[in-house]
Specification:
The structure is a single chain. This protein is of the alpha/beta class. It has 3 domains: about 130 residues, Rossmann fold; about 120 residues, Alpha Horseshoe (Serine Threonine Protein Phosphatase 5, Tetratricopeptide repeat), CATH 1.25.40; about 180 residues, DNA Cyclobutane Dipyrimidine Photolyase, subunit A, domain 3, CATH 1.10.579.10. About 50% of the residues lie in helices and about 5% in strands. Strand 4, helix 4 and strand 5 form a beta-alpha-beta unit. Helix 3 runs parallel beside helix 4 and helix 15 packs antiparallel against helix 16. The longest helix is centred in the middle third of the chain and has 26 residues. The structure holds flavin-adenine dinucleotide. Flavin-adenine dinucleotide binds next to helix 9, helix 11, helix 14 and helix 16.
């Protein structure tokens, strides 16, 4: 009798370049059971947040449909992963379970236990690399040990060969009818009150949506990426982050497709520079996973231990204003409102609002990290942790604490025409460009001409940027010489 295999899909919701699925197809199996287990309780505090759940619903729907087109279907179950696998092994007579590896600490711990449990029951297991270009344990400094600085990390890996992506299957064996699936709706991933329209209107979750994003990016953005990536009003980056998070596209597919595209379009030095700049962002993603793998307590604890004693302010009211985009600082409010509406925020703004929260308001970075976790469609434990610790000055290769972004200067530099602010803070739409990033400094005449009464139509700033900067530096002085 031929044997059966379960392919346990997690954050690898794609058919192409999916090594676990490919190994199942190439193995001596007569049936493949594609399984998704909804087990948020196994991820503790880092179970998918509200925006991620909206994405996951759509992504699972797209993936189910894609499997059905090939003659298979997705089996959805809920519960403890080990129990669900036991049940499905029993129901299907499977002799093997395959999956692709993930790198966040609770998943690693869970997967180790599941693997041991299955092997104890004579079920063959195999796991594969799909989520990263290089395994975190294969990269180490000359002295041995993990990297904590991006540039040498990327230098060490950027010229390493990247495996050729695997083709998508053209057909899949049927999953026989007696294997039942729970309905997608039963996972209750969608909110009861429909606040998620903005997210659903902005994005196309799923493998097809991911490849469309990549192709549009290559055609419209890549040749100017290094310039456009910092200007939030422009369509200047790839918007691939949520697709990468859920594994609807893998990093090696991106790397190979970029190289192929360069081959097809006479590669110039400038084009190469833009492409390298984009690929180095994929490198930052690798780096953040490297750091999370080697320092698994960083989602909660600062990598730089001095920051355990940092005198954070505990400013709850400031945190609330920041979350709601009503701080009275236009760039900060624009970023926070983009996030609320679309589940995404431009990187320049992520850095700006994170610096404002942790430095001008002196609210502990973990609060910002948590808000992002719940509101970002691309919320990712590795990238979010690195981003917050970077902005707060306490992480790997972090911006030094004394580098405090001035949101008004950021606006003048990267949103010169105030287009981004006008898009997300329409109360200020009629204010002249020269005042748009600092309405509190605008003369009364200019405010009147734009129909704005500060404190009524738009808030007065909740902090003085200069004064709060000075206080943040004084707070840092208290810890900077600690060991
Ligand atoms: C405070 C803060 C929090 C962040 N939280 C997240 C998060 O939860 N999830 C997330 O994916 N990114 C996070 N980032 C990183 C970055 O802002 C986003 O990856 C990027 O804005 C996504 O847009 P894009 O796909 O258009 O990026 P592109 O510029 O097109 O970059 C391509 C890909 O490279 C990766 N990448 C880009 N910048 C970074 C970076 N700085 N660190 C790690 N990977 C990067 C992403 O996977 C991205 O999709 C955070 C940054 C900061 C400062």
């Amino acid at each position: 009798m031929k044997e059966r295999v379960i392919v346990w899909f997690r954050r690898d919701l794609r058919l192409a370049d999916n090594p676990a699925l490919r190994a199942a197809l190439d193995g001596d199996f007569d049936a493949i059971v594609p399984l998704f287990i909804h087990a948020p309780h196994e991820l503790g505090a880092w179970a998918p947040g509200a925006a991620q759940r909206v994405w996951l619903h759509e992504s699972l729907a797209a993936f189910s449909e894609a499997l059905e087109v090939l003659g298979s279907r997705l089996i959805i179950r809920q519960g403890d992963s080990a129990d669900v696998l036991d049940t499905l092994v029993e129901e299907s007579g499977a002799t093997a379970v395959y999956w692709n590896r993930l790198y966040d600490p609770l998943t690693i711990e869970r997967d180790k236990k599941v693997k041991q449990h299955l092997e104890d029951n004579d079920i063959q297991t195999a796991s594969f690399k799909a989520h990263l270009l290089h395994e975190p344990w294969t990269v180490e400094t000359k002295q041995g040990g993990p990297y904590k600085v991006f540039t040498p990390f990327w230098k060490a890996v950027k010229n390493r060969a990247v495996d050729t992506p695997l083709a998508a299957p053209t057909s899949l064996p049927d999953v026989w009818s007696r294997i039942g699936s729970e309905s997608l709706a039963s996972l209750e991933l969608r909110p009861k009150i429909e606040w998620d329209r903005g997210i659903r209107d902005t994005w196309s979750p799923g493998e097809d949506g991911a490849h469309e994003r990549l192709e549009t990016f290559l055609e419209d953005v890549l040749e100017q990426y290094d310039d456009s990536r910092d200007e939030p009003a422009r369509y200047g980056t790839s918007y691939l982050s949520p697709h990468l998070h859920w594994g609807e596209i893998g990093p090696r597919q991106i790397v190979h497709r970029v190289e192929e595209w360069l081959d097809d379009h006479r590669e110039t030095k400038t084009l190469r520079t833009h492409a390298d700049s984009f690929l180095s962002e994929i490198g930052w993603r690798e780096f953040s996973h490297h750091v999370l793998y080697h320092f698994p307590n960083t989602p909660e604890q600062p990598l730089d231990a001095r920051f355990k004693d940092f005198p954070w302010s505990g400013d709850d009211e400031g945190l609330r204003c920041w979350q709601q985009g009503c701080t009275g600082i236009p760039m900060v409010d624009a970023g926070m409102r983009e996030l609320w509406e679309t589940g995404y925020m431009h990187n320049r703004l992520r850095m700006t609002v994170a610096s404002f929260l942790t430095k001008n308001l002196r609210v502990a970075w973990q609060h910002g990290e948590r808000w992002f976790w719940d509101t970002l469609v691309d919320a990712d434990l590795a990238n979010n942790t690195l981003g917050w610790q970077w902005a707060a000055g306490c992480g790997a290769d972090a911006a030094p604490f004394f580098r405090i972004f001035n949101p008004a200067r950021q606006g003048e530099r990267f949103d010169k025409q105030g287009e981004y602010v006008r898009r997300w803070v329409p109360e200020l739409a009629d204010l002249e460009n020269r005042h748009i990033h600092e309405p509190w400094k605008a003369p009364a005449k200019a405010l009147k001409a734009a129909n704005i009464t500060l404190g009524e139509d738009y808030p007065e700033p909740i902090v003085d940027l200069k004064e709060s900067r000075r206080e943040a530096l004084a707070a840092f002085d208290e810890i900077k010489n600690d060991d």
